[in-house]
Amino acid sequence: MSVTNVNVTNAIHTVPGLRIGARWVAETAAGSVPVHDPASGAVIGAMPVAGPAEVDAAAAAAAAAFAGWKRRTPLERFQVITAATALLRQRAAAIAAVLTREQGKPLAEAERELRLAADIIDFLAEEAKRLAARGVPPRTAGVASQTVLRVPVGPVAAFTPWNFPANLPARKIGAALAAGCSVVIRPDERTPFTCVEIVRAFVDAGLPDGVLNLVAGPPAPISAALVADDRIAKLSFTGSVAVGRALGELAARHGKRYTAELGGHAPAIVCADADAAAVAALAVAAKYRNAGQVCASPIRFLVQRRRYAEFAAAFTAGARALRVGPGAEPGTQMGPLVDAARVQQMRSFIDDALAHGGRLVCGGERLARPGAFFAPTVLEAVPAAARVQREEPFGPIAVLDAFDDLDEAIARANALPYGLAAYAFTNDLRAATKLADALDAGMVGINHFGVSQPETPFGGVKASGVGHESGLEGLLACTEVKLVSVAA
User: Fold this and answer.
1) What is the pLDDT of residues 346-364, one digit of tens each?
2) Which residues belong to the active site?
3) Contact predicate 155/62, CB 8 Å
4) Which residues are within 8 A (CB) of 330 and not within 5 positions of it... i.e. 6 or more apart?
5) Residues of the chain with pLDDT under 70
6) Can you give the CATH number for the domain in which 330 is found?
7) I need a labelling partner for 234 at 20 to 30 A (CA). Which of 11, 44, 76, 368 fits?
């Protein structure tokens, strides 16, 4: 919904607007959308909406700038990109405050995200300097050489959600710019200001005009326009399975390259030989980080039966002890959900689980305070038919259950159509090897939850997506293969 004349409370001080070519655009004919603080519900700013004219202008700017940016050497691109990340690090505390105000996560989490975003971008820019050509020996007399090159795919349209307003744009922007591509990015309309600040850092670092453009507003018309635009060569999307599949169909129809990260429903298997209390402490931190609004968040905790009671008691105690509050307050360990709609979704998942015969161990309710706060929740003995066992809750809900045999646990872990992340905890080398091989996920963590690093590929299998971001694989996704064969 577009609005004008928004009454803004404690407004965020940031560059107001879209970035198109060489201009910041503060007003458009399409109006603006309010941005809310999920910890209070207050309006903290308004973001102009990109209408058809602005989207067209952004695509045109990206296409025009691509010709010059792709001709820059990888070293020249690296120098501009790392000048921008230096600014991001200098401004990390201030931008983290913006991120927390619009998204809700604790300030310490927000600042870590900003600094990790800079690391992601730096790695991709550094790796681009090492994209080597590959020589292939000719098999025909008279052919002097055959060289396989990696060249930039072209202007990239990138669509990011609200849960990681710095990290997710960084993966897409960093890979595209390092590879020599230009970008049109559309951040989620609920959390646009962090991405605005990232773009501003690149502008201030001297990135040529038009290489990085930002549009905002309702996702459907913007994505439809960019997908159909002949000037856009590649799409990169992070979001729901339903939307990702629809965009994939559009991309295929228009012959566009496509990368999609579409969420998951991560299992965490805890074997009897693991330290149940220590694993529970790690699991609480991983589960309730960002209020559970993490695509790789563990959801289904499958614990070997003879350690189940110990694990469940420690996990539940840890969940109950979490300090929930506004992200800007010192000591907050879990902030609000992004908006009131997410709160209603949590209640819907819990009601359905209880209706199927599951047990509510703790939490399960909206907290009695302003803002979109929901208590850390633990369910157990939830039947497989319940929604929370089949659909990603994307919130602070953990489901605990027991298993007897490792093969049973693996089968249950792999039973869903998702395959983004999976975790397992064991001190048995044979069990660890079996789990690593058998778990059907793009990322498997054995004895820890930290599967996402700047140097490693992030992506899933089955319904969890197509392709990868971050790591060398994320960079290669923004390139095309080009063979040059030269006759003597």
Assistant:
1) 999 999 999 999 999 999 9
2) 261, 295
3) yes
4) none
5) 1-16
6) 3.40.309.10
7) 76
